[in-house]
Specification:
There is one protein chain. By secondary structure, the chain is mainly beta. Helix content is 9%, strand content 34%. Strands 7, 10, 11, 12, 13, 14, 15 and 16 form an 8-stranded mixed sheet that branches. Strands 24-23-22-27-28-25-26 form a 7-stranded mixed sheet. Strands 17-18-19-21-20 form a 5-stranded mixed beta barrel. A hairpin with a 2-residue loop joins strand 27 and strand 28. The longest helix is centred in the N-terminal third of the chain and has 15 residues. The C terminus is likely disordered.
Length: 497
Amino acid sequence: DRDLIVEATAGEAKTAEFDVLNDKDGNDFLLDVDTLVPTAIENWNELYDYFGGLAASTNAYGDWQSAYATHQDKNAEDARTRVVLQPAINNLALDDTKKDKVGEIFQNASTNVARYVQTDDGVRITTAAEYARDKSTNDRLFYGWSDTSSNNVDYTTRYTQKEWEDLFATNGKAGVGYNPLKVDKYAVYRYNYIELDCWDEGIAADQIHYPIAGLRTLAGTDNVDHAADDQYRDARSSYVNAVHDTEYYIVNRGDEKVSYFTDYENVKKIDPEYIEAVYAVAENTEYDNNEYDYWVANVIVIEVKGQIGDVDNISLAFSNYKQTTQRVKFLDTLTTKYEGVNAHVIPDGADWGPRWEDYGFYKLYDTEKDGDELLADDIVRINRGEYNTNGIYAGVVTRVDKVSGRGGYIDVDLHDANNSSITREAVTVKDGAAYLPSSMQYIYAIDGDEAVDDLTVTSKNNGDVRTGDHIIWVTKTDDAKTTYYIVVVSDKSDNDG
């Protein structure tokens, strides 16, 4: 009985909440599916419990349950109860029988795609699925009947309902009175939701062919029959084409970020272990060289766990620019692959108050230089236990004299740099050495909101970096001899005082 709110992302616009204008009975996206038991499922808490029960009994549905944990708190039953979104499913709002079984939901899908009309008051959302119709009469179209195919469907012909019944139902071929409206397999669709199978192979860069999920049976009482659109025309090997104007939405369940772009040429490799669900809203196209219809994707949604893309930089964020009128907020950082190291980073889509609250090391994904700023598609905090694998180390300087000038390094008593503890442990770099960066200007001390550069290292131990200093240094992950920058955290006067 409550009003509906939808969290939606439309193209390059930021994800935002909107009032749903068509929020009463009959909304295409209200969850309403049945199980093999009499109880209907009408919210995500009931989905979560249902798949949790199957997971406990069959060990086959754990990922499905996780899809409906909700981002706020997987244990927040009240939060799950308020979510009533129908996840992606075939024939949405076209065929009630497709919503009779909860197992018809695309595997692990937690999103959906809608047509929408936006006004000042909110949005009106409707299904993207649509039946194919005769261009002159607007009558629905159906594939023909066949006595030679295993499922009695001829996918190379199309008829209106009257034509179909005259040809196949009145003369007894399909059975007297046989009505194609009652049988999914004869329906012709103009647009439909198509589940894609990328769990085993992942997604390749610039991928143009996406396999349609075929018949897939899971253990348990609610076996799942995912055969694209109930039409078994070589369902296991059929595929959806992606084209230049295909719209892509990458949904990261970890941080709730939605990334948008167009064109298959912008698709980057995604390993299968990151993929939760993939589906398309595709257009039915007639026909290929075998006279069979095929699907061309208008939209492809890829739900992933964790950040994907290329890590371009490792950055130490130590301050942020205070926002003023007509200016953009940015983070002051020391960044590995940036001319001058000291970079102003603007995280795409990030928003914060007067001050950034979580300074430290970050991975920067898919960066692009824009004037004096470095734009990052996303930034992800590097936490304890992840430092060394990202080339970050810490320790206390033990030897400078001679080795810095003649060897290009300084000796360091390595702490447990991976976890920031004060006890020394073995780490996976050359034990006890920090190689100097290519220029002394890349040796810094952080003074409040400023990175003071060009600190000196002298062979007489009387420069800015001396024995007893605590330092952090950042290297290439596969080459400890290449140091991007060193930060002097404290010096001897600090220790003495």
